[in-house]
C-alpha cells in the first residue's frame, strides 16, 4: 500500500513516502530514488544536452513512476523500466519542442579537466556532434556507448527492432 501523499522535493527527496513497497516485497521507492536519481540525471543530461532539462525530465519521470510504483517496484528490473520512461520522456519532449527549442549548451554537463587540452577538445567536439544528431540516433548512441547496453535492450527501450538500432548507431557514427 502507498502510504499518504508524496511530494517530490528539489534535490531528489520525496516527502511522505517512507513506506512505498507493496506487501513487504519489491523495491522501496524512496530507496530507489536515493540510489538511482543521480545516475538517471546523468543519463538524462547526456540525452538532452542540458542539465536543467535533465533535472526536469527526471523529476517528471520520478513523479510518474511514483504514481505507478506499486507495479514498477515489483518488476524484475525497475531501473530498466524507469530508464525507458526517461528515454520516452526525452523523445516526447523533443517531438513537442522540435520547432521552438533552441539548441541547448552541453558545456554545463562537462566537468573541467585538469589542463588536458586534447581531451577537452575531443570531448567538446564529441558533444557538438551529438547535438547535431536526430533524437533516435542520439538516444541509440548514448544507450549503446554511455550506458553500455546491448542492441536488444536498446531496441526494447526505443520501441523498435534490433536492426533499426544497429542502423541508427551506424548512421550516427558516419
How large a portion of the residues is in β-strands, by DSSP E? Answer: under 5%
**Whole-number radius of gyration?**
17 Å
Name the poorly predicted regions. Answer: 1-24
Distance, first to last CA = 50 Å
Q: What is the assembly state of the chains in this entry?
A: single chain
Q: How many strand elements?
A: 2
Structural class: mainly alpha
What summary fits the major beta sheet? 2 strands, antiparallel
Q: Give the strand order of the largest sheet, numbering strands 1, 2, ... along the chain.
A: 1-2
What gross morphology would you assign? globular
Q: Which series of helices and strands comes N to C?
A: EEHHHHHHHH
- What is the residue-averaged pLDDT? 79
- Helical fraction: 55-70%
The helix tally amounts to 8
Q: What are the defining features of this structure?
A:
174 residues; single chain; globular; two-stranded antiparallel sheet; mainly alpha
Description:
The protein is mostly helical and 174 residues long. The chain is 62% helix and 3% strand. The chain has helices at residues 29-48, 51-67, 69-72, 78-97, 117-131, 135-146, 151-158, 162-173, and strands spanning 7-9, 13-15. A two-stranded antiparallel ribbon has the order 1-2. Helix 1 (29-48) runs antiparallel to helix 2 (51-67), helix 2 (51-67) packs across helix 4 and helix 6 (135-146) packs across helix 8 (162-173). Residues 1-24 have low confidence and may be disordered.
Amino acid at each position: 500500500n502507498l502510504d499518504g501523499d508524496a511530494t517530490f522535493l528539489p534535490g531528489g527527496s520525496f516527502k511522505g513516502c517512507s513506506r512505498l513497497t507493496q506487501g513487504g516485497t519489491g523495491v522501496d521507492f524512496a530507496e530507489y530514488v536515493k540510489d538511482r536519481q543521480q545516475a538517471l540525471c546523468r543519463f538524462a543530461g547526456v540525452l538532452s544536452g542540458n542539465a536543467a532539462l535533465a533535472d526536469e525530465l527526471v523529476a517528471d519521470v520520478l513523479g510518474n513512476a511514483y504514481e505507478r510504483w506499486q507495479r514498477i517496484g515489483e518488476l524484475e528490473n525497475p531501473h530498466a523500466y524507469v530508464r525507458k520512461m526517461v528515454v520516452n520522456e526525452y523523445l516526447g519532449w523533443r517531438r513537442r519542442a522540435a520547432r521552438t527549442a533552441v539548441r541547448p549548451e552541453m558545456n554545463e554537463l562537462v566537468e573541467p579537466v585538469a589542463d588536458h587540452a586534447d581531451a577537452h577538445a575531443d570531448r567538446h567536439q564529441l558533444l557538438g556532434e551529438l547535438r547535431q544528431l536526430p533524437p533516435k540516433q542520439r538516444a541509440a548512441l548514448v544507450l549503446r556507448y554511455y550506458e553500455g547496453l546491448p542492441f536488444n535492450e536498446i531496441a526494447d527501450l526505443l520501441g523498435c527492432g534490433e536492426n533499426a538500432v544497429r542502423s541508427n548507431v551506424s548512421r550516427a557514427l558516419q
